[in-house]
Amino acid sequence: MSEQNSAQSAVTVLGLGPMGRALAGAFLGAGLRTTVWNRTPGKDQELVRRGAVSAPSVVEAVAASPLTVVCVVNYDASDAILRSDAVTDALKGRTVVNLTADTPGRARDTADWAAGHGVRYLDGAIMTPTPTIGTPAGVFIHSGPEEVYQEHRPVLEALGGTHTHLGAEIGRAAAYDIALLDIFWTAMAGYAHALAVARAEGITARELAPFAKGIGDILPAIFEQTAEELDAGTYPGDGNPITSAVSSMSHIVHTSEAHGIDAGVMRAAEGLARRAVGLGHGADGFTRIAEILGRR
Ligand code: NDP
Questions:
Q1: How many angstroms separate the CA atoms of 75 and 82, rounded?
Q2: Mean pLDDT, residues 83-94
Q3: Which ligand 1 atom minimizes the distance to the CA of 74?
Q4: CA–CA gap between residue 63 and residue 51 (Å, rounded)
Q5: How many Å lie between the centroid of ligand 1 and the Cα of residue 79?
Q6: What CATH number has the domain spanning 3-168?
Q7: I need a surface site. Which of 110, 236, 244, 260 has the fewest CB within 10 A?
Q8: What are the sequence ranges of the domains in the chain?
Q9: Which ligand 1 atom sits closest to the C-alpha of 72?
Q10: Measured distance CA(222)–CA(210) in Å, rounded
């Protein structure tokens, strides 16, 4: 962003949890006039020391900038902040970018509210942790009207990282977020379970780590290779049929339960694989389960 642009640009950040503080800090670092507000006072002190303007109320915060970025715990919280009559009036003709994580349905509901009150609205999600904000490693996804996105893109890009506009359908960024977090949290549940089973077998997390990373490294090629197969409706299982996966998964359940460790997550995954076999898809690859889950 040029010096002239950044001098003219102003942005408001509502919500100063770890992520809101990181966002406001990155805007300040990029030279933008940054106004901040948080429900609980006091979280803006470091930002104010760096030049942020602390607004005494939400109304004053949103009135200070053409663009307001919201980042709070969920949409119940962002609704509580935005949907009072006074704030809605102050937002008329201005733009809100909601980087709070929640469901696609909540994003669509907020877009309906915004459209009904003359508020311009973009939805978004942040796919990387706070230390990445303001660095090339940040990943942001956005959805909503293209012209609104293009207008505010220079300010959003002051957050660093990559910004992808996924389309005009307002729920799309949240839908990507949900799908990606589905991968993340099921993987983390598997990792936590693996650590417990490994420990019960006398293996430390440090000893397991290099091999655990190796398992993580296998996944990108699988995502890449199976994407086209899935979109084409094919699920080749030549190298690793579901029958083989079921056998491998049952070993994990048995080892885990022999140590008295809850194997509920793996039992659920094994149950899906057994269902695929029962439906006659035992020779297919594991991604057949995506198709089965999607059946109505
Ligand atoms: P939290 O998810 O804990 O959100 C904290 C913020 O929410 C605070 O500003 C808090 O205000 C506010 N808040 C909570 N309830 C209310 C309410 N009823 N009314 C008004 N404000 C409320 O922390 P983060 O900052 O880390 O996360 C913010 C968003 O960013 C979340 O949606 C999260 O999923 C997303 N995100 C976070 C990442 C991270 O690494 N932290 C990574 C990617 C996305 P108060 O201080 O007053 O309690």
A1: 10
A2: 98
A3: 32
A4: 18
A5: 13
A6: 3.40.50.720
A7: 260
A8: 3-168, 175-293
A9: 7
A10: 20
